[in-house]
Amino acid sequence: MPDFHEAIAFSQAHEVPWPRDPQADPARWGVHHDDPAPYNRLRGPVHVRGGVSGVVLRGGQEAAAWGEPDRSDQTFSVAKTYLALLAGVAHARGLIPDVQQRVGETLPGIGFDGPHNGQVRWVHLLEQTSEWQGSCFGLPDTVEHNRRVAHDPKPPQGKKGEPRQLQAPGSYWEYNDVRINQFALALLHLFRRPLPEVFEESILRPLGGGAGFRWEGYDDAWTEIGGLRLQSVPGGTHWGGGVRISARDQARVAQLLLADGVHRGERLLPAGWVERMRTPCAIAPFYGWLTWLNRDGHLFADASRESWFMVGAGGHYVWIDPAHDAVVVVRWLDPARAPGFVSRVARAVVG
After folding, report:
1. Name one Pfam family in it (predicted).
2. pLDDT at site 82
């Protein structure tokens, strides 16, 4: 069995420089501070976090664990990938028969109508190429215009939050949490049930997980569907809320993707869905369906080129490595030190 002690010690020595209690030093916790006023404030709950934790699976078996792997903590944009899994569940149930279908054809009246937004297809939402325009629960898409994220090789055109000229849906890639939240709202209307319930029922429980799992929405993100008042959830913790989950459950989800959506002989995701999630977007080849790819080694030079990742602010990384039949989860790692951690794990795996 590979020796991961060096990688574990490295991660524990380089915790993200955020306070563990968001209330202790609010100015150093989270990512909402970078938004233009009045959108630079929290809109949903945040929680005291744990320290650096992680899990490594090899061949589906736990090879290493450290920190508090069963602690349920917020995981920021790792939740975006969970929306892609829910879209797969919707596809399996016939709710999204074709990802090339325009969203407004199925869900009129929720923001996907008109000359521009009416051209948005499900695949655009999955690739972050929708260029959707509007406000989702009081947050305008423009607050995320020109956003720069660490793994995006494309420089922004201007200052964050400065409106730019929109392109045709499908023709421009931009990491945009407001559009992701609009995607989550669309999925809520499809399922007509709270997304946390669907995710736990369709993914986590069949995997043997779910202890401590929560998916929280913004305080004012409520809508009525079929006479029921339902809370829509965000695809991250940018403005608070989002997914709370343990490292072991994150590893369970990643192992499901490594196994092409099948767990113990049961297909939880439709055939071909996982392969499409890790296929490069034509105009952003570093990205798949709400996942980060490493095809050219740009993301992490020492990870295999088959590797793909779920990534969240605050130092959350879920690494799926088909080349070595491995899954690696690390939480609350200083992002500046992530390459060093990946290098040490890669050396241990190769042996």
Report:
1. Beta-lactamase
2. 98
**Res 153: pLDDT:** 84
State the Cα–Cα distance between residues 179 and 263, nearest whole angstrom.
31
* Domain covering 5-90+190-350, topology: Beta-lactamase (3.40.710)
Q: How many residues does the chain have?
A: 351
Q: Are 203 and 268 in contact (CB under 8 A)?
A: yes
Which 3 state secondary structure label does DSSP give 90? helix
Range in 9-18, 316-325, 342-351 the model is least confident about: 342-351
Q: What would the mean pLDDT of 270-274 be, rounded to a whole number?
A: 98
Instruction: Judge contact between 15 and 332, C-beta under 8 A.
Output: yes
Cα torsion through 225, 93, 292, 322, rounded to 10:
150
Tell the burial category of 239 from Cβ atoms under 10 Å away from its Cβ (0-12, 13-18, 19+): buried
Average pLDDT over residues 3-27: 97
At residue 262, the pLDDT reads: 98
CA distance 293 to 279: 8
Residue with tokens 């947050």: 139
Domain residue ranges of the chain, discontinuous segments joined by +: 5-90+190-350
